[in-house]
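Researcher: Structure for this, please.
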Amino acid sequence: MNTMHATHVHTGTTLRVGEWLLAIGGGIAAFIGGFVLVAPSTSTVSLGLGGDYSWTVAELGDGWGFGLLAGGLVALIAAWLLLRYDQREGYAHEATPTAVLTGHAIAFVLVNALLWAQDLALGEGLNYAYWVTIAWGVGLAVHAYTVLSQRGHSPPTG
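Model: Predicted structure, token format:
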């Protein structure tokens, strides 16, 4: 009797943290540089903390705008080239589902710590950080459940 077994093939996810951080930082720098160059001189550039961490566009000047824009574009191009090199040369390493979950958890802790610190530093109590933490926490919990529930389960061999 011929029996067919359903098999689940996990293709894995490739972690390219350095390239993504380079791309995100480059995008932010390019955006702020472009904003400094085109915004009215009375506009404010802020790190979100207010007070001493805010500047008007006139205080920054065009030099900062061009520097941030050029540096951000260079970082974006470098990240794109690194990603293309990995794809073309096949140097990317496959990450295990547990490693991907660990990366997700680390990003959750770091980003939420920054958001909570920013929200508390504004001095107006909690305004928004808990909403991000709740929604992202649910997503992280589902991710953890799927990864941990599949641990030890190997596809049937026929």
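Researcher: Any notable elements?
Model: Helices lie at 17-38, 57-89, 97-121, 129-149. The mean pLDDT is 75.
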